[in-house]
Structures are given as C-alpha cells and as structure tokens.
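User: I want to check something. If I give you two sequences, will you return the structure for each one separately, not as a complex?

Assistant: Yes, each is folded on its own. Here is the first sequence with its structure:
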Amino acid sequence: MDVVIKNTLASFDPAQAGWQFMWIILFVGLAGLGVAAERIIYIYFRSSKGRDKFLLDFGKLLAEKKYEEAVAFTKTSKLPIATVLGAIVGSHDKGKEAIVAASDAVFLTEAPRVNRYLSIIGLIASVATLLGLAGTIFGLIITFDAIANKPAAERPTALANGISVAMGTTLLGLAAAIPLLVINGFLSMFSERVIQEMEEKSLKVINSLA
C-alpha cells in the first residue's frame, strides 16, 4: 500500500508523463466533493434536522385551529416542509382550490431545491472515470511506443513509465468516482424521501382544512 501511495503521489510531478491527467482528475474529484458537501448540508441538515419536532408542534397548533400561530411558527423554521405547510395554512380560509394552488406554487419552488445539483455529482463521477480511462490510453500509447521505437536498453524504463501512467490515472479516476457515486446514491434516496414526505404531509393538511 505504501508503494502504491508513493507512486501515485510521484505521478503528480510535472517531470512524470501523464501528470496533467492526475491534476485534472484531482481537481474534478475535489469539485465533486465540494458539491456533495453542499448537498449533504442542505438535505441532511437544513431539510431534515428537527423535522419530527417541527411536525409535532405544528400538528398541535393545527389541531387546536390556531392557524395564525401555525403560520407564524412555520416562518421560524428553514425546513422546506415548513414553507409548504405555511403556505397551505395561510390560505385555509380561501377555499380548497386556493389552498391547493398555494401548495403547488410553493412545492414547485421547494422540491427542486432539495434535489438540485445531484445530477452534477453523478456527471462529475462519470467525467472522473473517463479522465482516468483517457490517462490509461495515454499510458498504453507510451508503452506501445516503447516496444516499437525504444532501444533495448531504454525499453524497460519506458515500459514501466507507460504502465505507471496507465495504472495511476485509472486508480485516481476510480478513487474520485466511486465515493461520489455512493454519496450521490444516498443523497438521491434521502432527497426523494424528503420530497415524498412534503407531498404526504401537504395532502393531509389540505384534506384537514378543506
């Protein structure tokens, strides 16, 4: 493992063939992790933290028909579901059509905020993999060139360099892509759950008010 790490780090040296691929893959991977970190903060914390307590307290106000207090309470929370429910209760005295329209308008704003940028994480993971493949092909070109054109004395070193480029870029590309794909899968699953809960709770509140 130490040898692998040492050789991988050495591949970033501009004196080494294929170093451009290593740096590009690294920057792409870091960009993907940055987007993933922002989505984790928004989906897991801003869209979910304290959701159960909010719904419990909101439900009590709704059961007691304290509509103005319920609307004020939703404004104290940054949860997407709070915004949707606040719009619904705020229109409780305008008829079912107005309630549904208010719900749809806010839902169409909040739902995309939950799952936006998730496709970008998957795209970055694919780009990292393809960059690793491009580096592999570049390394193979160096290898085949060594076999065909290098003198016998220089051939082993050239072959080793070509194989090192091919393996190093492949490894880094996969190391960047795999975590991003796993994170994207979990975020997609959790965002869908958040959106489904928004739909479910909205429908229940609409039915209770209509």
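And separately, the second sequence with its own structure:
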Amino acid sequence: MPYKTVIVEKEGKIGRLTLNRPDKLNAINDTMLREIEEGLEELRKDGNIWLVIIKGAGKSFSAGQDLSGVDTAEVMPPDPHAKPYLSEIFEGAEKLGERLRHLYAFPRFTIAQVHGYCLGLGATIAMCCRALVCTEDAVFGDPSIRMGLAVPNPLWTWRVGLKKTKELLLTGRYINGKEAEQIGLAMAAVPAFKLDEFVREEAEAQLRFGGIGGYDMQSAWRVAHETNMDIAGLAAAWRFSSYLYGQSSIQRPGRSYIDRGGVDFTKIRREKGLKPALAARDEPTKKYFPAPAAPKAS
C-alpha cells in the first residue's frame, strides 16, 4: 500500500521500515505514527518476514514529536491555552500509550538502526525494539522535559535503571551513542560507516540461529519474556506513565510549570513561530547541559 511518511521494503526474510520525513529530521506526526503501525502490520502479515529493521531516512533516526502543531493531535497533548477537558487529555495519553505498547509487543524480532538524533518519541520507538544499534555520534534524549512534559512510557527506567533515568529525564540532558552503549540503552555503538554492515550481520545472525529450537522458539521466548516483565510491573508502569504524561500537560493557574518560570512553548510558537519557541525552550538549560555537536549524515 502507498505511504506518505514511511517506506516499507522486503528483502528475503528481512523487512525494513524507514521513517521518511528527512526534511523534518523524521519528526513524528499523527500520520507517521499511524503509518508505522500500518507498515509493521503489513510486514507481520507476510509469513516470510522474520525480522524487521526500523531506521530513519536522511540525517537522523528521528528528532521526536513534530512540534509544529500541524497533524499532532495524537503525538502531543492538547494546547493548554485551549482549556481542554480532562477526559480529552487522559484519553489521548492512554491512546498514545496503547500504540506504543503495541509496537513494543510486535511479534517479530526488531532492530532499531539509529543514527543522528534519536529524541523524544523517536527514542521511545527505538527503545520499543528488541535490539538497538547506533552510531557513536548518535544523540539520545527527551527535550520535551524542558516543556514541562513527562515521558509517555516507562522504558527509560526499564532499559537503563532508575538512577540514570532520573539524571536524564529530570534534566533533559542528551547523551551520545557511546554513552548509550555504556549505560545499556544501546546494544552496540559503532562508527557511522560501519552501521549498515553491523546491523546486517546482526540480522543475519538472528535469522540463522534464532535461539535454540529454531525461530519458532523466539516467539515462545518473546511471550515468556513479556509475561515476566509484566509480572515485574511493566504493564502497570505503562499505565502509570500514560497517567503522568497526561497530568504533566495540565497547566493549572498559579501552580503550573509555566507559572513557576517554565517556557510557555505553545504561546511563543503561536505568536513568533516554531524556531523561536524551540530556542526559548532550550536556552535556560543550554549552559548546564549543552547538546553534543550535530551528528553527521551516515
């Protein structure tokens, strides 16, 4: 089927889903989020596809949620200036959480092939994959923290532990691919020119061995793994993260993030445009947590 924002390809037993808004650094809008689901479903229905690689076109994997305000009703909470109903806020947060859990539980082995920026919702999508391989100069983080928003998923904690998650998500600090490997977020960080080759070798190894008992055993292992994680609390953590994400978007007069000196991102965007809003968002913490140099195209 035709797609506007992703590319779906098949090569033998390998499927590829490429985020395809390179002029926007693959910023994720509602259309892309929907087409990621549709593209993965197309690959799932093909019995010959055993493994899926998710990557980004152009200079980055994904810069995160599209912050333009256009086609973003699902990937971003409602504008607080519009005074949305609480039901609208929490139902939207729950719906986003459901879509992310669906990606996390995708029944094929998935590899996130990350280069450039991997931020916000883009980082979430990469973390939903079973393996994450990145370039050494890839950039991970969640800048929405600097807008007063909580992350809509619990995977940071489950991937790298509570201590490191608190450091990253209470400050909005970015890390590069080397540090992502050191803390366990990435399986491996490699030089940019080796990324394609490394991911292909990893994919071929998965296809060749697939665990003791063949590739069907991978499906059984996946179910057992997910069940154990849910018993440990991951299912409840997903729900709680959705709740916190919705709650964080509620700007109560006199007590809100904005009233405490935080940046009113949507107001600046409405009055001056997106670039000034981004600059205002990042300026207060720039001195303390400068972003790494912009990554090079792979």
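Because they were folded independently, the notes below concern the second chain alone. The domain at 6-286 is CATH 3.90.226.10 (2-enoyl-CoA Hydratase; Chain A, domain 1). The CA atoms of residues 263 and 280 lie 7 Å apart.
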